[in-house]
Design goal:
The chain is 80% helix and 0% strand. By secondary structure, it is an all-alpha fold. It has one domain. Helix 1 packs antiparallel against helix 4, helix 1 runs parallel beside helix 5 and helix 5 packs antiparallel against helix 6. The longest helix has 26 residues. The two termini are 30 Å apart. The relative contact order is 0.16.
Length: 168
């Protein structure tokens, strides 16, 4: 029963991504420029780093290098976010990073180790392909390969964070 609930959460979250993508495409909600864009980036990076650090602290650090791992992941996230021109593109890291975590949690009910991580990345990437395909059908929407790559990179960053979480 628990596994069904976990997969139901994954399905609901994927549906939420697809619906909000349509709403954003039609309304243009995230067309921020200038200072708003930089504030969004700063809040995003601080929040992501703080969540990871709090999680590590909450569950106790079992590795002397844990904070170094957190710093490296935060730096990778910052570099990736700075290279994205549009604030809405930065949402891919939140959306697909969380999707990876939800898929991994659902998979770990039956699968462990490297296989669970690899399959979670593949399933997250597949959801990204469907998302981009749907976007090509929306008004003003296009299939954007760079968005798809951002989705996959978000899954890899989340996999790194999950590994740090488990091992530290």
């Amino acid at each position: 029963m628990m596994m069904f609930v976990r997969w139901a959460v994954v399905a609901a979250y994927v549906a939420l991504i697809y619906v909000t993508t349509f709403v954003i495409s039609v309304t243009g909600v995230f067309e921020m420029k200038g200072v708003a864009s930089h504030v969004f980036l700063a809040v995003y990076v601080v929040a992501a780093t703080a969540l990871l650090a709090m999680g590590l602290k909450r569950f106790g650090l079992r590795n002397d290098y844990a904070w170094l791992y957190v710093a490296i992941l935060a730096l990778l996230l910052l570099i990736a976010a700075l290279n994205l021109a549009e604030p809405k593109d930065r949402l891919h890291f939140l959306e697909y990073g969380l999707l990876f975590v939800l898929v991994l949690r659902a998979l770990k009910a039956k699968t462990t180790g490297f296989y669970a991580y690899a399959l979670a990345i593949i399933l997250t990437a597949a959801a990204g392909v469907v998302d981009e395909t749907l976007q090509s059908l929306y008004p003003k929407g296009v299939f954007d390969l760079s968005d798809l790559l951002n989705n996959v990179f978000a899954a890899y960053l989340a996999a790194g964070a999950a590994l740090v979480w488990e091992r530290c």
